[in-house]
Specification:
homodimer, 362 residues, alpha+beta, NE0471 N-terminal domain-like, Double-stranded beta-helix, 2 domains, 4-stranded antiparallel β-sheet, 11 helices, 28% helix, Trimethyllysine dioxygenase, mitochondrial (chains A, B), carnitine biosynthesis (chains A, B), trimethyllysine dioxygenase activity (chains A, B)
Amino acid sequence: EDHLQLEYKGAKLKLNYVWLRDHCRTGDSINHLTQQRMVDSALIDPNIQPVNVAIDEGTLSITWPDGHQSEYDLEWLLSNTYEGKQHLQGTLEPLLWNLETLSASPSPSVSYQDYLTDDGQLSKLLHNLLKYGFAFVEEAPVTVEATLAVAERISQIRETFFGRFWCFTSDLERHDTAYTAEALGAHTDTTYLNEPAGVQVFHKMEHVGEGGDTLLVDGFHAAERLRQEDPEGFAILSSVSVPHHYLEPTIHTTGVGPVLELEPGPCKELKLIRYNMHDRACLDTVPMEDVSRWYSALRNLTRYIRDPASEYWVTLQPGRILLTYNWRVLHGRSAFTGRRRVAGCYLPRDDVISRARVLKVI
Amino acid sequence: EDHLQLEYKGAKLKLNYVWLRDHCRTGDSINHLTQQRMVDSALIDPNIQPVNVAIDEGTLSITWPDGHQSEYDLEWLLSNTYEGKQHLQGTLEPLLWNLETLSASPSPSVSYQDYLTDDGQLSKLLHNLLKYGFAFVEEAPVTVEATLAVAERISQIRETFFGRFWCFTSDLERHDTAYTAEALGAHTDTTYLNEPAGVQVFHKMEHVGEGGDTLLVDGFHAAERLRQEDPEGFAILSSVSVPHHYLEPTIHTTGVGPVLELEPGPCKELKLIRYNMHDRACLDTVPMEDVSRWYSALRNLTRYIRDPASEYWVTLQPGRILLTYNWRVLHGRSAFTGRRRVAGCYLPRDDVISRARVLKVI
């Protein structure tokens, strides 16, 4: 016997004794300010057995051979074990959308002044961003400073080799596709980094000309269609890591990961989509005998992404700042004429999620 | 037949036709400045067959049904296919070390002035960093500016919620273990971020007191011992993602990934070690029936990490700046008395590797 069995709220928990000793919540086993572990996991006796076990009023109490007393709230056990988690619902479920879903929902937006001064409006923005995968801040001053203020209200900026802040024009300063006037199909950004940027902030500061509308597609909606309709394709896209790259004379980065990356653990939720036809590098991570199945899965996923029913087109007026959750929502644009200037920056996903947690949005 | 077979330099390549069309190196299939793909992978006919194939002077030439001509250098095919890569050696092999190995090798260091002005010395620093997992810059001014100059010579800084630059003292400004005067066992940093920091820059600016030496341990050396001596343990630590977290009243980040993360592809090289007993959060990503094997593997890995033969202790004098490759080399410190101030920052792994590629260090 290396575990104790417990049933709580329908979950059957088999609690391994080493795990229990390692996760003791009491005494000097944990720093209660930081939740940092003070137990040395490697020094726990692999054959440890409790000398006493009691359950009383929602608390599991254990006495260990050295006299140490541990206590565990049963609710806490439910939230923090592989088996227990399967019985929980997240506090904020993403709303996977297509054009029809969005037509029935109000546009997720907050106004600039309220957003900057009112934590409730910041929470609403983060809620929108995590529920829909995108959100708007309206009525912002058409300045770089205001765009930065919107970004830094959430977290520090994620600086890349583009700098802290970028400005796309059609002036072809760089050779990357983003800096042309061509149409860009729906894609995610920075697939050429090991961890793609979490949130992208876009502000169209100026456009004198035609076209240049912004396309949004919910990558998780497309991926869930694939999971339903081509489970084998979903399995290969979520298990095989593929490389992406960015090359300039002074830059050569690579990012390698699955097109559909899943959360670890029992629920297999989507964590991240990497979808960028241009930046995908040589497919050298798949044995040639599996290559054909991989391309077949990519074709199916692409069909769902390019389905006109998936496409949400918006016109970004100066003053309307768009934030996309780049781990989920793809963006693109129609071709344009004239001078068009879009400024923006990236935010690190960890810190955006941290902010949402601290504000109890999730 | 969906592929053509080719033998080159001992590698048997089975080249799938869709893969070949997708990886065409000629004409308008690729942007030669950025190596961005101009082919739409999803639109390639799944049953595509060449109308002509020829191999001449190290080049494979294919004519496709629509008349498009593709050419592939055979060397390029060797470097960019799953099967071909297995026959290649990296240009810079990491030297996995223990104390004995290091005693036989010169200490990897460059001098501050040369490093700042001479690209050859920058290359040497990057070579040291990627070969040993750590490197020194000597004779630096004992200032924040000089420390930043050493960092920014390589790439932009990776800002975290600690800021762009941090300074540890024993003044207990924060509650995290790093900010105490206690001994810290060998660990990697920022396991509580989805992507841990790539490189850590340390500069001990001041110490009036005893102790406070710096410990370095090659995590990949320990991991390779585990791969040899406990293959099942290596398999579980490299396949199971485990969560880590950081908590303060205004911060709550999590990072989830395997203790031993491997490169995708055929060679199963180590990519990244996450090893932090304090910051590891609740192990809720492993079914309870596998938990016991996971802890057993962690114990074995820990034994190799804490083996005194693995430990390289250094005294950091002010002016001697240490860079560690945090994806590989663990650091720790002995307890100390008195006032001790260590300043430093993180660099993003992608950009460090990019710099090394551009300088042809790797």
